[in-house]
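Sorry to interrupt, but I need a hand with the structure work. I would like you to pick a protein and set down its sequence and fold. Please put the record directly below this note.
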Amino acid sequence: MATNTNISTDQPAPSSRNRLVFVYNADSGFLNMLKDWTHKIVRPSTYNCRLCALTYGNTGMHKKWHAFISDLSFDTVFLHRDEFGKEYPSLKDTPLPCIFVEQKHDKHMKVILDAETINKQQTLYQLTETCTRSIKNYIEHE
């Protein structure tokens, strides 16, 4: 799990703010990372996680994505599919990848960007623009 108070890989610190929870359609662990890395190179069109494909290159997180995440007015947490299922068992059947807002007052999880929408994005720019619109919409209706 990775957290942004500002983009750390430690456990999330308690916060008085709502947080964004980004969930990858990929499992955690070194062997899974190697498998996914190879898959993205050999057959990128069949890779299952559009969020991963758009935000990570062969050598790590894209700088533009890192800057985008760092500028958000939310704490952020990044979970892999297996981590998400353990932390939020009632949501384990949610189609992935997706982005939630976890509300600070009751820990309620609300999808702000679903798998279908993320999977339609063709570029990192499109993803950040769509994410920005979804966050703005959430804030306006909170």
